[in-house]
Design a protein that fits this description.
This protein has two domains: 136 residues, 3-Layer(aba) Sandwich (Rossmann fold); 135 residues, Sandwich (Tumour Suppressor Smad4). Helix content is 17%, strand content 37%. The chain contains five helices and 20 strands. The longest helix is centred in the N-terminal third of the chain and has 15 residues.
Length: 287
């Protein structure tokens, strides 16, 4: 059976054209077919278009973590593994770099990879009338934060209909275990192993020493609303999409029904990525 591979890429990377040139010849050699998003169609003539309805066996993202996150949102809950090819600097979510592309694609076609199910979040903004204004799926995080002004905002956080805190801060991060090493980590949150399903709540610059990050069970339902003026507040999902947050709105976040499937090659463990990409683990070995 011919493997059907979807391809998403970021035009901003210098190596992208070379990578796409290599992808042009791989399908015939490996017995695979390509479905390519419209912004890359001119580089791979003859490839099928990649749409939300395309029947694909795996999705390849060409870029960095941002491109990987975009690929996860593109699938919108479909149980298709994602293989990230890193063309940038960090690439914490990706499985291989530019030099390993051919081998990685070959293993993907042959099914020689491990799938890591990663918990995702479902978020929605509900207005004062109870109507859903927007809904998203997030692999990393959902953030309610300030826009352009300098003063703090008054937040009320609720878990399973119980108020847990009212405090002043620059905002709040609601992260998955995967997202615990992203913005949440920079804001002082804990590192959570991706297989430990949980929801991490991290206040952003709280105006009190009493507020600390909280790790909730995956079944928890988290909500946050603003007390007072909500001017210039934003909800941002995975650092890429979002909307303005209006007076009377409530942000609701819970575990998504379906996980994101991350394709991993052998020798690519979570802690090895922490050491290599985030310099985690203390002092380097000395002679």
């Amino acid at each position: 059976m011919t493997a059907r591979l979807g391809v998403l890429g970021h035009r901003g990377y210098a190596d992208l054209q070379d990578v796409l040139a290599e992808l042009r010849r791989l399908p015939s050699e490996l017995g695979a077919s390509l479905h390519v998003e419209d912004t890359l169609a001119d580089a791979i003539p003859g490839a099928a278009p990649l749409t939300a309805d395309s029947a694909i066996d795996a999705l390849i993202t060409l870029g960095g973590d941002g491109t990987f996150l975009r690929g996860a949102r593109f699938l919108d809950g479909r149980q298709v593994p994602i293989l990230g090819v890193n063309l940038g600097r960090l690439g914490f979510l990706t499985a291989t770099g530019r030099d390993g592309l051919g081998r990685a694609i070959a293993r993907l076609v042959r099914g020689e990879f491990v799938v890591e199910p990663r918990m995702a979040l479902e978020a929605q903004v509900v207005d004062i009338e109870g109507q859903v204004r927007r809904r998203w799926r997030a692999l990393n995080d959902v953030v309610l934060h300030k826009g352009g002004f300098a003063r703090v905002v008054q937040l009320t956080a609720i878990v399973d209909d119980e108020e847990i805190a009212s405090y002043s801060a620059d905002g709040v991060i609601c992260a998955t275990p995967t997202g615990s090493t992203a913005y949440a980590l920079s804001a002082g949150g804990p590192i959570v192993v991706p297989t430990v399903e949980s929801i991490v709540i991290v206040p952003i610059s709280p105006h009190t020493l009493a507020m600390r990050p909280v790790v909730l069970p995956p079944t928890a339902r988290f909500a946050v609303r603003i007390n007072g003026d909500s001017a210039e507040l934003l909800v941002t999902v995975d650092g890429q999409v979002g909307m303005t947050f209006q007076q009377g709105d409530t942000l609701h976040v819970r575990r998504a029904a379906a996980p994101i499937l991350v394709a991993r090659l052998d020798g690519d463990g979570f802690f090895s990525r922490l050491r290599q990409k985030l310099a985690w683990g203390g002092l380097a070995d000395r002679d």
